[in-house]
Amino acid sequence: MAKLSVCVEMFWQSLSIPERIARSAALGYSAFEFWGWKGKDIAGIRRAMDDSGLTLAAMCIEPNFSLIRRDAADELVAGMQESVHVAQQLGCRTMIATTGNTYDDESFEASRRRVVSHLKLVGQVAADHGITLVLEPLNTLADHHGYWLTKMAQAVDIIDEVDSPAVRILMDLYHQQVQEGNLIANLRQYIGRIGHMHCAGVPGRHELVGGELDYRAIFKAVDEAGYQKYIGLEYAPTIDSDESLREPLTLV
After folding, report:
1. What is the CB-side half-sphere exposure of residue 94 using CA atoms within 13 A?
2. pTM listed for this prediction
3. Is the C-alpha dihedral spanning 65, 69, 74, 75 positive or negative?
4. Cβ neighbours of residue 93 under 8 Å, at least 6 residues apart?
């Protein structure tokens, strides 16, 4: 059965992160996730985790959206080391990396070489601490105009060159449906390289039911492929957060 994680960045906007963790647990979820850790009450999050029993499924590295940046190797390694320290405090074993936007004055291949080089460096920090680092393609058609990495095959090519069991892909079902579709075939083909997943309804990035994606069929395919990691609910609710989050539990 698919294991769902609540991306608390998207829900209960008036509440603190620890309060959102408690609300997720009250609804019956076993895991949560968030984006960047800077500026967050790490001690308060740890207490909320201890009180609720929830697992932190994933968090972003700092600096995020930076793998493509020129002359950023030292900053990326230092940021990854600091991020790993925070992840260890919170018992988090999966961290999310994004590339950032395209440089208009260089070729795709030149940017790719830099991304691979940087990913090898931060991936080694992850490997040294038992962390899985997941690289996320995003869509440029609706949400992240100019973002460099957009397709699953591109991400696979990169992590195959990095060649580290600690570096995998974050397959965001919403982003990939918007960008290229072919979700079930791609997840079946690339399942061995997928370390985390996100989901949302298409179009609009809202609830899972009512759009063009059949999440019952997708979650069934995920199960059949043998995926046993978390799928993060990363969508903007159109109704009350509690009411909205009850629905995904009926789909798995």
Report:
1. 25
2. 0.97
3. negative
4. 87, 130, 131, 132
Look at the block and give the residue holding tokens 């809202």.
206
Beta strands in the chain (DSSP E): 3-7, 31-33, 55-60, 94-97, 132-135, 167-172, 194-199, 230-233
Please list the alpha-helical segments (H only) found in 142-213. Answer: 152-162, 173-179, 183-190
Structure tokens at 50: 């201890």
| Dihedral angle sign, alpha carbons of residues 20, 22, 25, 27 | negative
Nearest residue to 169 (alpha-carbon basis) of 195, 192, 149: 195
Question: Tell me: the pLDDT tens digits for 124-154?
Answer: 999 999 999 999 999 999 999 999 999 999 9
Domains of the chain: 3-250 (3.20.20.150)
Residues 6+ apart with CB under 8 A from 234: 7, 9, 10, 172, 174, 198, 199, 200
Residue 101: both structure tokens together: 């936007």
